[in-house]
Amino acid sequence: MNTARQLHDLGQSLWLDNISRGLLTSGTLGRYVSELAVTGLTSNPTIFDQAIRNTAFYDDEIRKKAAEGKSGEALFFEVALEDLAQAADLFRPAYDATDGVDGWASLEVSPLLANDTAGTIRAVAQLHAQAQRANIFIKIPGTREGVAAIEESIFAGVPVNVTLLFSREHYIAAAEAYLRGIERRIAAGLDPKVASVASLFVSRWDVAVKDRIAPELRNQLGIAIAKRTYKAYCDLLASPRSRKLIDAGARPQRLLWASTGTKDPAAADTLYIEALAAPDTINTIPEKTLHAFADHGKLRGILPADGGDAEKVLAEFKRTGVDDAALAAQLQREGTAAFDKSWKDLMDCIESKRDALTKAARTEATHP
Q1: Cβ atoms < 10 Å from Cβ of 188
Q2: Which tens digit of pLDDT belongs to each residue from 254-306?
């Protein structure tokens, strides 16, 4: 049994941090499901930009939608939802077998709405309706404005993947928004079973401090932040507030590890997968890292529910001048800005392809 399967059997869901038309049509994603225990996936603007820019898989569909007068975001979301729907159908057996706990695909709302609560709420509702699949999450950034949108979207019954969380405090804000949304549904007599995950970004912490710390502290900060957050997650799940909602039929919001590909070439390529093994969590794994873990990864125990040595390690970083609260805010700002840029690059890619394919179609029509 490969270690990816072992990790799944331990109780951690493995989701692929990638999607492309080629992965779907070649049967590769299907093999990941059957051979590597992959039970979900996440997408983002950068992933779609690379898939559309670097392959011809989407050309016919873009050409067709361009002929229908579609462009920009509207065209992109139709194309993306074709992929997400296929992936969601592939994961549907896992969704059904776990009563909706697992088996999800995720689509991101426009990052340009990160600081627009009302705009995010409208866009999330529209994308959820357009997706027409029970097992597609809509991703909302965990910014201050996003937190309000999380609560409203959960209350509206939309499954939400909260993204761009970088600290325990970010996680708690997202988790409490989820709880408020469920509590309001119960008060209104609505079904409390609305799924959600909260995505904590890990490796970016270590990238941010690599030039400021002693070599012996490298690649420890992200894991310490994850351990601290995992303790908060376990504490919240055991709290009377959460138990009351679960007893009423709600399902717990699950903690998801994001940004788990190793960025330091001197570190193990399975570093964050091995360090973050924990039941009732999710790890979204880059494709290269998934193969590495299945090939030579090892299970080295599970995260301690009490946070283990997290506070001791974080105190070491504080002594070196690392302010984790300030850095968390900085990383979220930078992450939001990076997603904005990726989105604009994606829109440029869509328009460029649309224009080139439309021009080629006209040329062919006039000079067959």
Answers
A1: 8
A2: 999 999 999 999 999 999 999 999 999 999 999 999 999 999 999 989 999 99
- Short-list 234, 237, 238, 221, CA closest to 324: 221
Q: How many CB atoms lie within 10 A of CB 1?
A: 8
Q: Using DSSP, state whether 20 is helix, strand or coil.
A: coil
User: For residue 255, what is the enclosing H or E element?
Assistant: strand 254-258
Using DSSP, state whether 33 is helix, strand or coil.
helix
In whole angstroms, how large is the CA radius of gyration of the chain? 21
DSSP string, 145-198: HHHHHHHHHHHTT--EEEEEE-SHHHHHHHHHHHHHHHHHHHHTT------EEE
Q: Tokens representing 314?
A: 């974080």
**Parallel/antiparallel/unpaired status of strands 105-108 and 38-42:** parallel
139 is catalytic: yes
Site of tokens 């989407």: 58
Tens digits of residue pLDDT in 57-106:
999 999 999 999 999 999 999 999 999 999 999 999 999 999 999 999 99
Q: Which of 65, 139, 231, 353 is catalytic?
A: 139
Q: What is the pTM of this model?
A: 0.95
CA distance 123 to 156: 13
